Amino acid sequence: MHEPWTTQHSALEYQIQGWGNPYFSIGDNGHVMVTPTGPTGPAINLYELALDLKARGLVMPMLFRFSDIVGHRIERISKSFQRAIEEYSYAGNYRGVFPVKVNQQRHVVEEVARGGLPYNFGLEAGSKPELLIALSVTLPQDSLIICNGYKDTKYIETALLAQRMNKTVIIVLERIEEVDTVLDASQRLGIVPVLGVRAKLTSKGVGRWARSAGDRAKFGLTTAEIVQLVDRLAQHQMLHTLQMLHFHIGSQISSIIPIKNAMQEASNIYVELAKMGCAMGYMDVGGGLAIDYDGSKTDFHASKNYDLQEYAYDIVASIQDACRKASVSVPTLVSESGRAVAAQHAVLVFEVVGKNEVRFGEPSKPPSDSHRLLLELYETYQGIMPKNVQESFHDASQAKEESISLFRYGYMTLRERAQAERLYWHCCEKIANTLQRVKFIPEELQDLDRTLSAIYYCNFSIFQSAPDIWAIDQLFPIMPIHRLEERPTVSATLADLTCDSDGQIENFIDVEDVKNTLNVHPLAEGEPYLMGMFLNGAYQEILGDMHNLFGDTNAAHVKLDGDGYRIDHVVRGDSVTEVLRYVEYDPAQMVEAVRRQAESAVSERRLTNEQMRTLLDHYEASLRSYTYLTED
User: Fold this and answer.
1) Which residues share a beta bridge with 304?
2) Residue 7 and residue 483: Cα distance in Å, rounded?
3) What does 304-336 look like in DSSP terms, one character per residue?
4) Tell me, which fold does domain 372-449 have in CATH?
5) Nearest to residue 65, comparing CAs of 394, 346, 464, 361?
6) What does the DSSP 8-state code read for residue 117?
C-alpha cells in the first residue's frame, strides 16, 4: 500500500528543489510557482498564467519569458563578484557583459540592459550584426562592449568609430591576421583602438565544449603568436593599445577544477603582458559559468559542482595572487556569463494532445484447439515469478520470433500471429511488474520499462523550441505544471508534432543518472494536461529549426507588478503564411493554384460549389493560422 502522495513527493520526483532554486517550486495547490526575484518575492502560478493567456486568445505552445529573472541573475552575479572583491580587498572592479549570441531577441537584450544598469553590465558581440545590436542599445557609460568573432574591415571600423560615441569598445584580436587590419583602420580613421587578445590556453574545460580550448581551438592566439603580436604593436608604438587579456575554455563548465587551472595559466600570461609594456587593465575570463539543469550539484555535464560565490572567489583570488607576486596592478574583471544570465528566465509550456499507452492487463486463455505456440505463450505467462523472470523473457521472446517465421512461411494465420504478439506483450508487462520485487535486474531486462512506456504526444516541436535536445542530447528539466499533489502513475516518453523519429524525448534528468522515461499523470477526458520545459532561455530560440514548417511559438514577457503580474509584451508566433514565405512560396499564388484546380474539378462535377467553397475557406484560414495545433 502506497503512502499518500504529496507535493513534497513531486518535488523529489522532478528534482525541482535542485534545478528550480530559487525561481521555481511547487505550491500547496499542486501547481508550479514562479518567484522571479527569489523565494521571498511575489509568486506567479504558472498553470493559472497559461490559462489566463489562453483565455486572451494565445494558444499553446507558449514561451514565457520572466523578465525579472534576467535582472535578478545579473544582480546575483555582480554581487557575488563584489563580495569576493571586498573579502579579498581586491583593488579592481567587476564589469559583466552579456554575450548577445546567447539570446538575440530584442526584448531580452533590452531587459539585460535595464537589469544591468545598476551594475554597469555591458554586451559582447560575436559578429557584425551583433555589434550593430549592441551599439543600438542604451548602456551605462561605464559598461563595456566586447567585440569577438571573425572581423572584416567594416566590423573593425564600426567598432573604432563607436568609441567616439562615448562607448568603451574593446576589439579582441582572435587571429594574428587581424592586427594589421586594425592598425590600418586605426591609421585611416585617426582613432586609437582599445585592444584585447584572446589567449589559446592549454587548460581545457570539461564536457561537450572542452574542445573550444587548447591547441585545436577555433579562435585564440598561442603564446608564440601573442609574443609576435606584442612585437608587432611595439614596432608601431602601439603597445599602449593592448589592454585586455581574454580567454574562453568552453560553455557549461561543470567542474570548478578546469576554471582554477585556466585562471592560473591566464593570470601568468596577464602579468607577463604587463611586464612587456602593454597597458593592461582588463581580464576577460569568458563564459562557461554553468547551470544546474538536473539539480544534482555534481560535475555531470548537465550540472555543476560549484556555486556562483565559489566561482567569483576563485577568479578574484587567482588574478590577485599572480599580480601581487609580479608587483602588477590588478585588472578590472570581466565575465561573459550568458547561459547563467538567460537560461532560467524562459519556460516553454505545451499541452499533451494524445497518447499511445501500452496496457494489457490479464490475457484470456486460448481455446484448447489453438495453435501450439499460443498455448505455450499462455503457459509462459502463467509461470512468471521473481525467480524465473529472465528465463520467462527468453521463452516469450523465442516464441515471438517463431511466430514470425511460421507466419512468413504460411504456417500461421494473421489472426494467430496477432494473438501471439499480444500474448508476448502480456508476458513483458507481467515481467516488468514482477521486476519490482527483484533485487538484481538482469541487464537485458533493464530497458523493459522503457519498451512498455506510454508515448505522450505534445503540441510543440523539439527542433524549433529545444534543438539542443536533438543536436547534442542536452537535458532540460521537464515536468507537469499542475496536478502535482497527485501521484504520477504513467511512465512515458514525449513525442512532438513533427514526423521525424528524432522528434521524441527519451532522456530525462535524474539525481543519479539519466532516466529514459518520465513519470506523468493519466490524461483526464476533457481536461488540459500542461507540461513545462524549463531553463531553456539560452541559445534555443535562435537555433530553432522549422522542421515540418513549425515556426516560432507565441511568446509572452511577464513582469512582476506588485503582488501580481503584467504582460509587458506578447510576440505572436509564426503563421503558416510567414513560414511559407521563408521557403520562397507566395501564399497568394498558392491560393490561386488551388482555386484553379478546384474550378476544374467543379466543371468536371467531381466537386460541388459548396465543397469548393469549403476547401478554399479551409485553405485560406490555414494560411492565416498558427503553425501548431489549435482548437477548432
Assistant:
1) none
2) 9
3) -SS-HHHHHHHHHHHHHHHHHHHT-PPPEEEE-
4) Methane Monooxygenase Hydroxylase; Chain G, domain 1 (1.20.58)
5) 346
6) G
pLDDT surpassing 70 at residue 215? no
473 forms beta bridges with: none
Residue with cell 561573459: 336
Residues 6+ apart with CB under 8 A from 97: 121, 122, 123, 124, 143, 144, 145, 146, 334, 335, 336
Contact (CB, 8 A) for 126 and 100: yes
Instruction: Give CA–CA dist 574/624, Å, rounded.
Output: 9
Q: What backbone phi and psi angles, to 5 degrees, belong to 347?
A: -135, 125
Element (H, E) at 519: strand 518-520
Residues, the chain: 632
Element (H or E) spanning 98, and its range?
A: strand 94-99
Question: Which residues, 6+ apart, have CB-to-CB distance to 155 below 8 Å?
Answer: 127, 128, 131, 147
Distance from C-alpha of 505 to C-alpha of 462, rounded to nearest angstrom: 8
- Assess whether pLDDT exceeds 60 at residue 268: yes
Summary count for the chain: helices (H), strands (E)? 22, 21
Lowest average pLDDT, out of 94-103, 152-161, 176-185, 206-215, goes to 206-215
Question: What burial letters (b/e) apply to 120-141, b meaning 16+ CB within 10 Å?
Answer: bbbbbbbbbebbeebbebebee
Helix (H) or strand (E) holding 219: none
Which residue matches cell numbers 516560432?
A: 552
Nearest to 186 by CA among 169, 199, 166: 169
| Per-residue confidence (pLDDT) for residue 535, from 0 to 100 | 98
In this predicted model, what pLDDT tens digit does every residue of 485-536 receive, in sequence order? 999 999 999 999 999 989 999 999 998 789 999 999 999 999 999 999 999 9
Q: How far is CA 455 from CA 164, 508, 531, in A?
A: 59, 14, 14
d(CA 528, CA 350): 10
pLDDT digits (tens, 9 = 90+) for 69-83: 999 999 999 999 999
Rounded Cα–Cα distance for residues 197 and 173 (Å): 5
Tell me the C-alpha to C-alpha distance, in Å, between residue 562 and each of 42, 46, 98, 525, 566. Answer: 8, 17, 28, 37, 9
Which percentage of the chain shows pLDDT scores above 70? 97
Q: State whether residue 272 is helix, strand or coil.
A: helix
Top-tier CATH class for 68-346: alpha beta
Q: Using CB atoms within 10 Å of the CB of residue 495, give its burial: 0 to 12 exposed, 13 to 18 middle, 19+ buried.
A: buried
DSSP codes, 348-360: EEEEEEEEE----
Give the C-alpha distances (Å, rounded to integers) separating 304 from 290, 299, 511, 552.
6, 5, 12, 31
pLDDT at 205: 66
Amino acid identity at 185:
A
- In angstroms, the CA 342 to CA 335 distance is 14
**What is the rounded CA–CA span in Å between residue 317 and residue 319?**
6
Q: Which of 1, 168, 73, 101 is nearest to 540 (CA)?
A: 101
Pull the grid cell for residue 618: 479551409
Question: What pTM does this model have?
Answer: 0.92
CB 73 within 8 A of CB 98: no
